[in-house]
Amino acid sequence: METKGTTYLGIDGGGTRCRARIEDDKGRLLGEASSGPATTRIGVEKAWRSIMEATEAAAAQAGLAREDFARMHAGIGLAGLGRRGAEAALKNIAHPFASVIFISDGLAACLGAHGGANGAIVVAGTGSVGVGLIDGHEIRLAGYGFPVSDEGSGADIGLQVVRLALRAADRRSELTPLLAEVLGAFDHDPYQAVAWSEEARATDYAAFAPIVMRHANQGDPVGRRIVERAADAIGDLLDLFLARGIDRLSLVGGLADAIAPWLTPDLRGRLKRPDADAAAGALLVARGRIDLSHGKTDHEQASKFSV
């Protein structure tokens, strides 16, 4: 097969799935595919396998062979990149690409949402995090990972409902239709739920979030309390960005559309639809349109970059 020209790969690696998008040097879409979770919380090697699985499927769609990867520049947005040692471990993996730049999935989503301009996003998905950009400075709020953080996320919603279902099983609280359905997933056996919890990951807990949202919208009192609490947590992050002078705000992630109606009217009115998604943000990095300066990084980010 004839080797193709320069191509660009954008990866959106999250806790639920990994998406790969390949474009040519004119920005035309060549191929797009997805695979399973790509977060360092499942292990760097497993995350990398998901990245390559999605990339190879997108490349097949684009008619690209493995040897074409040597002309492919990759921007990889990955959940859990801030975990200690994760980025160093990823950089030690032998890759087939012309170049690779790793960024967090939250930063990729923020870059995509606002085209690299000043703005902020709150991610409401399997996990949750706030990422903002002010004059080249990145601000990161929360997102330390489930279960110690990620309030308002799908995983957090799932954890709350499983806990409350166990209380209802003991008759320590009312057994609402929501809690009955959750207990039914464990054959109404609390010890089955306990055994499940010993192996469950964030994605497993997040699978209960759509059930909670459905019952909340139907008026289930427990469901409503859980979702109201989640919306308060997401709203707090949005308010913090407003307090920092960022008024260009977007809500993204798998739960964004479901959570948005539960926010206060003022916050709902301030939200704008993102210009593009996290894969598009990763492509900006792959194309060199974002100049990253890798300094010390913390939750009041010291890293700087310019568009």
Describe this structure as you would to a colleague.
By secondary structure, the protein is α/β, with parallel strands linked by helices. 40% of the residues lie in helices and 20% in strands. It has helices at 44-62, 86-91, 105-114, 154-169, 177-184, 190-197, 202-206, 209-217, 221-243, 256-259, 265-270, 278-286; strands at residues 7-13, 18-24, 29-35, 72-78, 99-104, 119-124, 128-134, 137-141, 249-252, 291-293, 304-306. A five-stranded mixed sheet has the order 3-2-1-4-5. α4 (154-169) crosses α5, α5 (177-184) packs antiparallel against α8 (209-217) and α8 (209-217) packs across α9 (221-243). The longest helix is centred in the C-terminal third of the chain and has 23 residues, at 221-243. The radius of gyration is 20 Å and the shape is globular. It starts with 6 loop residues before the first strand and ends with a strand.
Give the structure's gist in a few sentences.
With 307 residues, this protein is α/β, with parallel strands linked by helices. The protein has helices at 44-62, 86-91, 105-114, 154-169, 177-184, 190-197, 202-206, 209-217, 221-243, 256-259, 265-270, 278-286; strands spanning 7-13, 18-24, 29-35, 72-78, 99-104, 119-124, 128-134, 137-141, 249-252, 291-293, 304-306.
Feature tags:
307 residues; disordered C terminus; 5-stranded mixed β-sheet; 4-stranded mixed β-sheet; alpha/beta; globular
- Class of secondary structure makeup: alpha/beta
Overall geometry:
globular
Beginning-to-end CA distance, first to last residue: 37 Å
**Spatial arrangement of strands, main beta sheet:** 3-2-1-4-5
% residues in beta strands? 15-25%
Percent of residues in helical segments?
40-55%
Radius of gyration: 20 Å
Q: List how many beta strands DSSP finds.
A: 11
Mean pLDDT: 91
What is the element string, with H for helices and E for strands? Answer: EEEHEHEHEEEHHHHHHEHHHEE
Q: Low-confidence runs (pLDDT<50, min 5 residues)?
A: 294-298, 300-307
Q: Report the biggest beta sheet as strand number plus sense, adding barrel if it closes.
A: 5 strands, mixed
Number of discrete helical segments:
12
